[in-house]
Amino acid sequence: MAERSTAAVDVADNGGDEPPAAEAAKATADGVDTQNGRAADGPMLEKDGERRNAAPAAAPELHSGHKLARRYRLEECVTRVDGFSSWRAMDEKLRRAVGVHLLPADHARARAVLAAARSSALLGDPRFVQVLDAVEENDLVYVVHEWLPDATELTAVLAAGPLEPHEAYQLVSQISQAMAAAHREGLAHLRLTPSAILRTSTGQYRIRGLAVNAALRGITSETPQRADTEAIGALLYAALTQRWPYETDAYGLTGLPKGVGLIAPDQVRAGVHRGLGELAMRALANDGATASRQEPACTTPEELSKAVAAMPRIRPPEPTFTAPPEYQHTTYQQGSYGRPTPSGMTTAQPLAVVPPPPPLQSRTGRALKWGVAALLIAALGLGSWQLADTLLDYRGTQGDSGPNPSQPNTNDAEDKKEPAQLPITGAQEYYPDGTPQNATEVAKTHDGDASTFWRTKSFYEGPQIKIKDGVGIVYDLGAEYEVSEASIALRFAGDHTTLALYKTDSSSPKGSVGSMKKIADTTTSGTAVKLTPVEPVKTRYVLLWITALPQAPGDEYSDPGYKQGVTDVTFKG
What we know:
By secondary structure, the protein is an alpha+beta fold. The protein has helices spanning about 20-30, 110-125, 155-160, 165-185, 210-215, 225-240, 265-270, 275-285, 300-310, 330-335, 365-400, 410-415, and strands at about 30-35, 40, 45, 50, 65-70, 70-80, 85-90, 95-105, 130-135, 140-145, 150-155, 195-200, 205, 220, 245, 255, 420, 425-430, 455, 470-485, 485-490, 495-505, 515-525, 530, 535-550, 550, 560, 565-570. It has three domains: about 20-145, 2-Layer Sandwich (Phosphorylase Kinase, domain 1), CATH 3.30.200.20; about 150-310, Transferase(Phosphotransferase), domain 1, CATH 1.10.510; about 420-570, Jelly Rolls (Sandwich). The protein starts with 20 loop residues before the first helix and ends with a strand.
């Protein structure tokens, strides 16, 4: 694909970090701060202590098919502005799509971009699009990050209309919690625009460009926490009203009327959730004033996250069911008698209703009923006598030729044989999404030591794991065995852990969990669970797959959240 020459391009859902092409070009030409849609004069932009340095001249001359580090093949340029470019690329080593930001090594911002990328990579929070690599090589600086093919920019989501209250609640809750965690590690975003928020196919929101987007554009702020909080407030305002809360149009959204200032969301659009509308106003730069009440402004993501948590929970809407199409019946079945008939059509005459015959009330009828009753009583008596006689004959036969009580029943002995413990010759973590939990500690789950364990990361939502399909470990039994039982000791109790066993073809299965044969599954609130399949399953490799986790306190390994540890696993067969 030929290299694009447009001054500013953003056409992909997952690769670029700019507003749509026309807006980005206008921003470059007119000097508009696209973080909030406000104009600024001169080569440097400022907003509430936030600075953007003047951009250098040109981006490096690259083209589709160019390969970085003999590994990342550039495929499509999705952004070219301010002397850098962003690409969709292919990681040929892992055979997966990635995103790449590129700029010359002598670019004025190259050092800042490398530092921001490396700091972001150290955070390791799955709510952010992960930085995979940050390299200076051959007069180029490039940053490689995740590419989410199943995710959609918030820009595209809002183009279809405002979000319903539960979805807007999920947006502000997830984004504020994620940014609070980032600021605790000293990281700010400073470019939280609708194009920086991705909604996955499972309904989770992920943030891309932490620290890196601002470094690419030379944006800094003296009050980074307030800048990110105000940006989250703008996202919530846009989600509720489908309007950008400033006078300038941006991100495909119409701005507010000029000269009226910041007005409450329910004055822009009818039916806005009152609590969420007030929350948006508290996060924006208005000192928390609303039409109905006075609340302190939220000046940090942590304060905003706590304000969201203090709200009454907003439940999802009730599912709507579509009635199945009505079957086409005949005229008689539809009961069309008496209905008007369309002109030009004839209606069949309704069938005459024949009443059932009256019950037998005559002397002959009564005699017939008594005769039938007598026959039934006689039949029941005869049947009971024959059954009793058969039972007596059977007991006599057993007394003459029954089994000798002194001789053991070999079949019963086989049935009562206890299953033996199976060997585990190896184990490794299974993570089809490319993000392991604690891959180096897997052996601690079958070392026989209850004090050692493998652990998951701490998730902020649960018990169901929402940002991935699950976490798991594949065990190698060394040979094929009939697996009839598994015992699993867990580190944390609570509501609740959901796990399952699957038969798989290798220690590194390529297919999805859905393509594997399930051996057994269960949900528990305790720390010990036994899984028994309906019938033993013959296999060498067994996958332990966990899809829900209990809430647990913080420890030396991770923060409080939904997490689990596996201390011991044994199989019998």
